[in-house]
Structures are given as C-alpha cells and as structure tokens.
C-alpha cells in the first residue's frame, strides 16, 4: 500500500503529512496483522485492511482522544485504542487465537 493510495482513501489533499504517512503505514499494517492474528502481504492488502490503515492514519493525525484533564499540576489522559468505527473494517479478517 503506497502513500498516494492512503491519501486518496483518507481524502488528504496536501503533501504536508507524507513523512508521517511513510512511517505510520507499515506500523498500521503490522498492527492490523496483530489485531487479526493474520499475516498480510503489504503489496496485496484486502480492502478492509486498506480502509483500516487509511482511517487509522487519519485518526492519528488529528489531536483527538483526550479523555480527561485536570487543572492542578496539569494532567492529561488520552485514549490509546482506535475507536470501533475504525477497527470494524478488520473484523472479517480476524482469526481465532489458540493458546
């Protein structure tokens, strides 16, 4: 999956995030593989995995996920997991883990 395809799927019009995307795309593909207990070929990704990568990259570019804030001694809490509307694209590719 190349950067141009991620930008088209996420509707990113500028080149400002190209360095970030080139770094994060392989990480998100690996994350999808771990989540699904499945191995994906980066050159021939299923459609749902492509959507996950594009939506997850877009989600990480926005300063969102703030779940809590305190004023005294300044403390912030962030959600570190992707929302369900992003991970739902991976559901058909999940495999059962046997321990």
Structure summary:
With about 100 residues, the protein is mainly alpha-helical.
What distinguishing features does this structure have?
mainly alpha, 99 residues, 4 helices
Q: Topology as H/E string?
A: HHHEEH
Number of helices: 4
Ranges where pLDDT stays below 50 over 5 or more residues in a row are none
What percent of residues adopt helix (DSSP H or I)?
40-55%
3D shape: flat
Q: The biggest beta sheet, please?
A: 2 strands, antiparallel
The neighbouring-strand order within the major sheet is 1-2
In total, how many beta strands?
2
The secondary-structure class comes to mainly alpha
Number of domains: 1
Strand content: 5-15%
How much is the radius of gyration in Å?
Answer: 15 Å
Query: Separation of termini?
Result: 31 Å
Question: What's the topology here?
Answer:
Elements lengths: L2 H8 L7 H19 L10 H15 L4 E5 L4 E4 L5 H4 L12
Antiparallel strand pairs: 1-2
Helix pairs in contact: 1-3, 2-3
Descriptive overview:
- 46% of the residues lie in helices and 9% in strands.
- The chain has one domain.
- The protein is mainly α and 99 residues long.
- It has helices at 3-10, 18-36, 47-61, 84-87, and strands spanning 66-70, 75-78.
């Amino acid at each position: 999956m190349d950067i141009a395809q991620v930008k088209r799927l996420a509707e990113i019009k500028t080149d400002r995030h190209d360095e970030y995307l080139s770094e994060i795309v392989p990480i998100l593909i690996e994350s999808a593989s771990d989540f699904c207990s499945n191995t994906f070929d980066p050159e021939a990704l299923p459609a749902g995995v492509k959507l996950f990568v594009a939506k997850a990259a877009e989600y990480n570019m926005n300063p969102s996920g703030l779940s809590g804030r305190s004023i005294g001694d300044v403390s912030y809490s962030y959600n570190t997991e992707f929302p369900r509307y992003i991970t739902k694209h991976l559901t058909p590719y999940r495999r059962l883990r046997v321990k």
